Amino acid sequence: MVRTTPLRPVDIASIFPELAPLARQAVRLHPRPGIPTPYESSIGGPLLWPANEKWPVCTEMHDDSELPVSLDDVRRRRALLEAAWLRPRGPKENLLSQEERALLDTLQAGHPSDGEPNALLPVAQLYLRDIPGLPCPDGADLLQVLWCPLDHETSLPAAYLVWRDAASVVDPLVSPPEPADVDHYGNYVPEPCILHPEPVIEYPAPHELPEDLLDRLAVWARAEWTKSHPEDEDHGSGDAYYQYELSVAPGWKLGGWGPWSFSDPWPMLCATCKTECRPLLTVSSGEWDGGSGSWIPLEDRVPPAGPVGLREPSDPPMVSIGRGYNMQIYICPVSFDHPHLENMQ
User: Fold this and answer.
1) Which residues contact 128 (CB under 8 A, 6 or more apart)?
2) Hey, which bits of 69-188 come out as E strands?
3) Are residues 87 and 93 in contact, defined by beta-carbon separation less than 8 angstroms?
4) How far apart are CA 55 and CA 160, in angstroms?
5) Taking each helix axis from N to C terminus, what angle separates 71-86 and 98-107, rounded to the nearest 10 degrees?
6) pLDDT band at 237 (very low <50, low <70, confident <90, very high)
7) What is the pLDDT of residues 75-105, one digit of tens each?
8) How far is the C-alpha of 146 from the C-alpha of 46, rounded, in Å?
9) What is the pLDDT of residue 323?
10) Rg (alpha carbons) of the chain, rounded to whole number
11) Which pLDDT does position 263 carry in this prediction?
12) Is pLDDT at 235 greater than 70 in this prediction?
């Protein structure tokens, strides 16, 4: 199936020509529940990994303010809650039975970490054939992203990037190692998803625009908003119209612009050569919410019939960054060998 982003309400670059040179292509990944194979692009699916290549592990310090849990704990907890949400119940009937509540408490209790290196967890696998504009070194056609599913110094999971030539993997690994520890709430454990990539055009978040342009955009946005919301004319509404409707697409995506939100932008400079890095991958806590409903794909605008379960339509991977934010991975345009950068917005 395809996913189709609705046309933006207006062609903002025709109204503000200064934005035209700032247009960038992003590829919305539109992850949806599925059973991907190692030979497909996916979120949270199995990786095409050579059997003779060492699986990466994390040896960094982790945030120990809350006990980690096991990957099996997360899977069993999600299965328990999914079944509970899907079964019919009366208006005064509890979601869980006493036995299920006790089991859930056990699964959420956590365990002390043994301090051993933690095997990394697959996050994304992106084939060049599926993802328009996927940056790859010469001879590579596959990007694989793994991370340590625990909080680190940046309050983010630590990502690990691998580019490879898919055709060179003739003896793939069948049963990769799994991490002994994941974050207490399982926020960094993506559910398997197949992808429906879709190129879209983005413009910078308001935080990255020159002040003069931003001021004129704000005046225009308020006037544009009150055309359809006259009741808001005296309340300053519409200031976020450009940000939420016309600039940066929400959700998991490749490339485009960074979704700066609760902080002002700062230079994302390569630690090796000081070149400005560009967004590679945005990991999102959800593809839409109350402020980004106009970005809901046309194919997803009719709510599913019947109970939804634990896995909400707006967040099939079930990944949560911070308090519902985004994690961006930036790479240096000079060399794929230079270390990447991570940011939360």
Assistant:
1) 134, 136, 140, 141, 142
2) 118-119, 121-127, 142-148, 158-164
3) no
4) 11
5) 150
6) low
7) 999 999 999 999 998 888 999 999 999 999 9
8) 11
9) 87
10) 22
11) 79
12) no
Chain centroid to Cα 136, Å, comes to 20
**318 band by pLDDT with thresholds 50, 70 and 90:** very high
Place of tokens 């919301």: 229
The model carries a pTM of: 0.94
Closest CA to 38 of 124, 118, 138, 133: 124
The structure tokens listed for 105 are 């408490």
249: buried, middle or exposed (CB in 10 Å: 19+, 13-18, 0-12)?
A: buried
**Degrees, nearest 5: CA angle 276-278-284:** 135
123 touches 46 (CB < 8 A): no
* CA 244/CA 238 separation, integer angstroms: 10
Per-residue pLDDT band for 184 (boundaries 50, 70, 90) equals very high
Taking residue 203's Cβ as centre, other Cβ atoms within 10 Å add up to 22
Long-range contact set of residues 132-139: C-beta below 8 Å, sequence gap at least 24? 132/25, 132/27, 132/197, 132/199, 133/25, 133/27, 133/199, 133/254, 133/255, 134/27, 134/254, 135/255, 135/280, 135/331, 135/336, 136/163, 137/163, 137/336, 139/165
Q: What is the DSSP string of 4-64?
A: -PPPPSS-HHHHSGGGGGG-EEEEE---EE----TTS-EES-----BTTSPPPEE-S----
CA dihedral 222, 224, 226, 229 (to 10 degrees): -120
DSSP 206: G
Give residue 176's identity as a one-letter amino acid code.
P
Q: Which residue pairs from 95-101 have beta carbons closer than 8 angstroms and sit at least 24 positions apart in sequence?
A: none
- 3 state SS of 151: coil
**Residue 84 has which token pair?**
């509970």
